[in-house]
Amino acid sequence: MKLTMPDVEAVFRAEYGRAVAVLVRLLGDIDLAEEAVQEAFAVAVARWPETGPPPSPAGWIVTTARNRAIDRLRREASRADRHAQAALLHARDVPTGEGPVRDDRLRLIFTCCHPALNPAARVALTLRLLGGLTTAEIARLFLVPEATLAQRIVRAKAKIRDAGIPYRVPRGADLPDRLTAVLAVLYLIFTEGHTAGSGDRLVRDDLCAEAIRLARLLVELMPDEPEASGLLALMLLTEARRPARTTADGALVPLPEQDRRRWDAGLVAEGQALVRRCLRRDRPGPYQIQAAIAAVHSDAADAASTDWAQILMLYDQLAAYAPGPVVALNRAVALAEVAGPETALAAVDRLDLAGYHVFHAVRADLLRRLGRAAEAAQAYRTAAERTDNAAERAFLSARAASS
């Protein structure tokens, strides 16, 4: 069987983060690891469409990247480069089972979330290395220009190099101090998977599955951290809706129109159990509150029976813990159900989110409900212009045409 370019790209998306994590552990050098993995995929792009895939594409990538890196280290070591010599020895004899974090990818997330790095840079760098996300995709998640995000990643790598920050498993006592950044990374990986920033498909299954897998590992590692459980609950309750989020041909179905009988009952039950466990601990945080909001949605048999008053109250609580325009925008959706679309539109129009396509989509829906059809159509068109996801764009363009 021969692979097409999309097949190779799918392997890249699914395996890039694992390969980089393994190579960092083998080599102890983040730049060398990333370059080696990229070289390995370049070889795959050239060979696999003609020769067909190896029995284990992921293993082939790691082995090829390791061999490329060691060849480079040998060349550099011959020029008396002590760093290359040290890395070469490290690559030959790597201890296993080091520290409390056993998974390579989760280990690298904790490593990148070193307190010496700027919080935003920690998250951006880790998403680039482990999420396999492009700089443009990460910039969309941060709602910043691509050039700004690229500079954050460059500065983070320079800080690691210049400060001599080691790539090693943090001690158990250091894990709680890095938890906030680790949770942010996992949340953003899942967010990009739940609604892909670009491409033809609404959902990237690989990223959703990986984020949930890592969140489960994190809960096992830190069972007494309620925010870790809250994030896992939020992911599970959101992922439970996936079967109903699109039609058979991939078209987007908004939450109010979804057939809730298609939601994954097992994931709903597991997510709700985690939320109840968090409530008993009485140590609320942003991810737990978002999970509670998702749990309220999952309690309703249909959109009409949703307890919007409770959701609005939870958004008020969330705004106190994590204030920001995106939280305020989501709160406005609940406000529209409780106080009416006119009140919600006034709240939305006070937000500075003109570059965010969801902002225009929410405005469009509120304008439509107020009978302002022409303005609604224009807002839908603006929203469609600001998303690179084909499924979202098709949905928003159809709403514009029907307004």
UniProtKB/TrEMBL annotation:
Keywords: Sigma factor, Transcription, Transcription regulation. Belongs to the sigma-70 factor family. ECF subfamily. Residues 109-160 form the RNA polymerase sigma factor 70 region 4 type domain. Residues 12-77 form the RNA polymerase sigma-70 region domain. This is RNA polymerase, sigma subunit, ECF family. GO terms for molecular function: DNA binding; sigma factor activity. It comes from the Bacteria. It comes from Micromonospora citrea. It holds the Pfam family Sigma70_r2. The keyword Transcription applies. Residues 178-278 form the DUF6596 domain. GO terms for biological process: DNA-templated transcription initiation.
